[in-house]
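[step 3/7] fold_predict: job queued, chain A
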Amino acid sequence: MKTLLLFMLAWTSLSQESRLEVFVSCRSPEVFSAYRNFNFRQDIVPTAGGLQVKLKSRSLRLRHLNHRVHADAGYLAAQGLELRGAFEQVRLEALSLADFLRNISLFLRNRIAYDEADLPQEAAAVLAQGRGHCIGFANVAQALLAGVGIASRQVNGFFLREEDGRIEPVPHRWLEIDLPGGRRVFYDPQYQDFSSRYLVTNRGVPLESIERFAGVVVSKSKKILDE
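[step 4/7] structure written:
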């Protein structure tokens, strides 16, 4: 039920703003730096023994994603049957980017099961096997967005899982989408929402090269905005 409520909130006129401040005992502080786009901000302050991290985000809103979308016939003609079939389902009755992203989320939720097994993660393979992990989810969503001419890039980082005030950073991948007008937004195809529980690594840093680290919550807050 909580996941469904978050999904519904992400596509209404309301927006959820979340803030999270954590301290992480990372031995490789150079792999993190300040980052900002339209719905996310990450501030990093190196301190003795680790990093003080301040994170702020807003969920996606319809009014910010009302750009009309049109199929890219040339791109789609070069794709396989699996992707073209998925695109036809996602494109149905989608006039705006908001509609299209909502349909992508519903498609992934209903058709792709999360699986950490060592399976192929290319978009076509994930669609054929009906399973994938965060990389596979990102590959499918990126390929579908390209079908309407929307550019995106994959982002490496960590999802900050919390339990009893302690933070466990889980290696993760999601998308940053380019919007008309030069704006960029984060969208997570696996979790299908976006919050302040993300820590972005610098480009080109392999996640497997970062030593395992942990953290604690310093402060956190959430509020609903009706702009």
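[step 5/7] annotate
DSSP finds six helices and eleven strands in the chain.
The two ends are 25 Å apart (CA to CA).
exit 0
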